[in-house]
Amino acid sequence: MSNNPQFIELKSVVDQEEHDFADMQQRHFKVRAQMALENDTLRKSFRGASDFLMGKRKAVFPDSDELEALRDRGEAARQRSLSKLPELLEQLERSLTANGVHVHWAETAEQANDVIHKILERRNARTVVKGKSMVSEEIELNHYLEQHGIECLESDMGEYLVQLGKETPSHIIMPAIHKNKEQIARLMHTRATTPDGEAVPYTEDVDDLIGNARAILREKFRTADAGISGVNMAIAETGTLLLVENEGNGRMCTTVPPVHIAITGIEKVVEKLTDVPELLTLLPRSATGQIITTYVNMISGPRKEGELDGPDEVHLVLLDNGRSRMFNHPELKQTLQCIRCGACMNHCPVYARVGGHAYGSTYPGPIGQVVTPQLSSAGGLAENGDMINACSLNGACGEACPVRIPLPDLIRNLRAEAVKPHRNVGVGDERVPGAGTQRHLTEALIWKGWSTVHKVPFLYRFSTNALAMGRGLMPSKIGPWTETRSTPKPAAKNLHQLARAAGIPDQPDD
Description:
With 510 residues, the protein is of the alpha/beta class. It folds into three domains: 5-319, NagB/RpiA/CoA transferase-like (Rossmann fold, 3-Layer(aba) Sandwich); 333-430, Alpha-helical ferredoxin (Fumarate Reductase Iron-sulfur Protein, Chain B, domain 2, Orthogonal Bundle), CATH 1.10.1060; 441-501, no CATH class. It contains 24 helices and ten strands. The strands form two sheets. The protein has a six-stranded parallel sheet with strand order 1-10-7-4-2-3, sandwiched between helices. Strands 8-5-6-9 form a four-stranded mixed sheet. A hairpin with a 4-residue loop joins strand 5 (233-235) and strand 6 (240-245). Helix 3 (40-60) crosses helix 13 (276-288), helix 17 (365-371) crosses helix 20 and helix 21 crosses helix 22. The longest helix is centred in the N-terminal third of the chain and has 21 residues, at 5-25. The chain is globular, with a radius of gyration of 26 Å.
């Protein structure tokens, strides 16, 4: 098959796409964004997907009053759980342990990877199937296990595709949203193999593409030594792990292999089972415009005597990775309310134009701009300072958030923390990593001068008169401002002069 001219041609295209992605990820944020803007196929994919998802969400929330009331209840449920987070985590551990689930705590991404690796090593597991989990992407679990000789295969269709392409997800709900069916067809044909070891036949029929992937994954589910999944909600009252999905792969990962390892951030805990209906109503409707997902899995322990399916062992890894610091920060605590629906991305005009890969992070879009700088493993504001400026502050993300996270306010807060002097933001360990690292003396002096001019009436009048008189001397290029904007030019007459010409007398200075 490798000598087939069509195969060779398609493989070269896929190899080039992989190279382009790797090259993009090595670039600076502004360069990545520009590369995305110049990719017409990418922009068309994201614009079409965003419009489709916004339309679906609007259709399932026809009554605006009902939506706002539901958002109020969802916000209250998340805030109620966060207000008791330390106590609920302890209760969750007790409840899960009583149900036969092994609970592990990980402060860092490295610790989480090590915990999971040790579980797999103890079971001599060499092959793993994994359901969708953004936390596992956050800690780069696949790469870690691969380096230790363990195959970890993604089983969510979108995740499977980006894994084949050696990429990362571009959306937290729809990982392969950036690919069209022609790109997927090429990828499946040149990178995937059937259980018999043959290349997957080339087809652009969506049903056939899904059927081919299903045939490959079914065999992997049957033979895997362990399954790994994420968690949408961890219910402290009952010791239940709740997962929502549409493909059935999550159910296969958590029931077929002899070991199930779930991993989640500590913020996913909810207090009671009665909190679930409100959040479960908001999550799928906000994410994909569905009334409910195809599967809602509720796992409360390993297989018991007399039961026909389920794993012999169930483990839960609770990850911190900076979440405790978020919890203790007076303004940024609301970050932890997120239920990972992706609605903020779908409604963000910036994300719709540059896509998820331009952000260079596990969590892109508005929520990514807030979450990423606060994660211990992400480099803080020092490495993500430009990301937080990828926002026009239009407010669409805050209006779309089902649990009312004030994303524009949090983005502004992080921008302020990035440039405050002496990195004196927050107290103790609660300050955001890299606070103050985006401060530049020249910029600070310019804004200090601007502030002074606008506070002193004499300086304001003098400066506006001077600008009007010297308008012809304005340079054609003003640094980054004119890279994407026209050069501003002062008016021939300032406001006071225009007022006097209209017969309006000057007002005395206060």
